[in-house]
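Objective 1.3, modelling of assemblies. Example input:
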Amino acid sequence: MSSGFVMRIAAPLVGAGLLAFVAAPALAQKGLDEPFQAQFKEALAGKTVAYVPVSMNFDLTEGWFAGLKKELEPYGMKVIVRDPNWSTSAGAQAVTTLLSEKPVAMVIHNPDVQTYAKLLQRAENEGIYVIQINMGSVYRSSGFVGANWIEIGERDADAVVKACAGKSNKIAIVQGALSAAASAYTLKGVENVLAKHPEIKVVSSQAADWDAAKAKAVTQTVLKQNPDLCGIVGFWDGMDIGTAAAVKEAGLTGKVFVATSGGGERKGACELVKSGAFDLDLSYDVPTQAADMAALIKWLVSSGAKAGSVKGSVYTTLVPITKENASAEMTCWNLGELKKN
Amino acid sequence: MKRGRISQQGIVFVIFAALFAAFAFLLPGFASTQNMLTLLQNVAVLGILGLGMAIVVIGRGVDLSLIATLAVPPGLVLQMVQDGHSFSGSLAAALLLTVAFGLINGWLIAYAEVPALFTTLATGLFLAGVGQALLFNLDVVQWSDGMAGFERLGQGTAFGVPMPIIVFALACVGVAILLRQTRIGAYIYAIGDNPYGARATGVPTRPIVVLQYVLAALIGCLAGLVMASSVNSMPTRIFNSTWIYDVILVVVLGGIGLSGGRGGVVNVVIGTLLIGTMLNGMTIMDMSYSAQNLVKGVVLLAAVIADSFLNPRNEETAQQGDI
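Predicted structure (C-alpha cells):
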C-alpha cells in the first residue's frame, strides 16, 4: 500500500523532471542556418532549361524529359522542350531560336556530330550551359551525359564471342543508320573485340536504319544462309525486336545469342529479355541519366561558373539485363510510372 | 502499244530473270526453296502496299497517305489492346478509322476535286500527326499479351509457307478479280484511261474514285497488320521513312504507268519480285549500304532507259496527264 502511494507521488515528479531535461537544450539552442541553400534556391528559381531531343515520342527522350522535370521543377525551374521530330534542320532552327531566348542551360540530343557543334559553342560563349546527352557533337561543352558507345560495342561483342565458344564462330552484326555516330562508335567497339578474336567470322554486317522490319529481313536472309550462326550483335533493342523475331521464326531462339542495347524501358527491354528474344540487353538506364543531367545543371547553375569554363563527362554506368535480373523490379523503368512521380 | 514491242513489264521481267539466274549461279544457297520463301516474305508487305497503290494509280490517282494507313490503324490496335481493351473491339475501331480515312481522301479528291497528290500528302501527314499526338504514347507501340495468337498473321506458316506470302497471294487474287472480273474494275480502268470520257458514257466516276481510296486504305491497314505481327510491334515513325517511294517504285517499275488505265496485278508482282531479288542477293553478298543504293539506282535507271528506247514517247503514244 505504501509503495503504491510512493509511486503515485513519484511518477509525475519523475515525468516532470524528464520533461525539463529534454526541453532545456531545445530552448537553449537556436536553429542554425545552412549557409549555402538560400543561394542555391535563388540561383535556380525561375530559370529556364531548354531541352532539344532528336524527337519526342520515344522511350529515351520521353524518359529524359520526365526525369528532368521531376528533378528541376520543384526548385522553380522551368523545363521547356523543342521537338524537331527527326528533322535535323528543324532542330538546328530550334537551337538557334533558343540562343536569343537565353535559357540558363540547354540539354541537347545531337542527331549527328557536326550539325549543332558551332551553335553549341555560340551558346556557351553567350553564357548558356550546354549539356549533351547520349549523342555528343565534336564541340565539347560543359557537360556530357551518356552511354559510352565504344564500351557498349565491346561488351556486346564480348558476350557474343563468349557464347560462340565451341560453336561455329559465325556472327552477324545489325548496325543502325550509317549517318549516326552512335552506330559508328558501337561498330568500332565491336571491331576492337574482333581484332583480338581472329577465329570469329563476321558473315554479315549490314545497316538496318534503326528499322525493325529491315532488321528482320536482313537477319532472316543471313540465318537461311548460315543456320549455324552462333550470335548476333544488334545496335538498338527497338530495332532488334525484328532481329529477334527472325531468330524466333527460324526456331533458333536460345541457339543464336542476341546481344543488343537500349534505354532499359520495361516493355522494350526487360520483357523481351524475359521472353528469350534477347540474351543480353545493355541498358543505359534513362532515369539515372536524367538524374545525372539534372545534377550537372544544379551544380553548374549554383556554381555561377562561366559557361564553357569547365568541361566534363558523365559516362553512364551500363546495366546488363539478362535472364537473371530481368524480372527484378528495379532493373527496368516504366514511362507511365516515371511520369507519375 | 504495237505488237512486237517489248513492254516495260517485259523489260523488268527480263532484268529480274537475268539477275535471278546470275544470283542462282553465283551465290550458293540463293536458289534454295528456303531462301526463296525468305525472299518473298521480306517483300510481301511491300507487295501488298503495291496492290493498294496499283488500284489508285490505275484510276489515274496516287495515294501518298498509304504509309500512314499502314502505321496508324494497326498501331491503334496494339495501343488499345495494351491499354486493356478487347482485341476484337480494337480491331473494329481501327477498321472504322481506316474506312473513315479512305472516305475523306476519296471525298476530297472526287467531290471537292483537290488533286490526289496534294490531298493524300496532307491527309497522310494529318493521320500520322493524329496518331503521334493523340493515340500513341510512344513511337514504337509494343505487342502485348492481349494480342496473343494474332502474331501468326506475320510469323506463322501454312503448308510450310510463311503467312505474309499467303496474305500477299490472297490479296493479289482478290485485287485481280476486282480489276479484271467485276464491273467496278472495268470502271476503274475507264476512269484511268479517260475520266471525262468515262463520265460521259455514264460511269459513276465520283463514287468509284471514293471506293478506290477506301480500298487502298484498307489494303494499307492489312499490310500494317501483317508487318506489326511480323516484328511484334508497330514502329509508327515508319511514316517518316522513304517507304512510299519504294511502293511507287514497285508499281511504276512493274509497268503501271502513272498516267493511269494501264497495268494490273501481274505488274505489281513483277516489280515486287525484282526488288526482292535485288535486296536478297545483295544481303547474301553482304554488300555495304551505299553500294546497295548504287546498284538499286543503276538497275532502275537501266529499266527506265530501256523502256524509253524501246517505247519512245511521241504524240501518238503520249497520254494526257503523262508524268
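The two ends of chain B are 18 Å apart (CA to CA).
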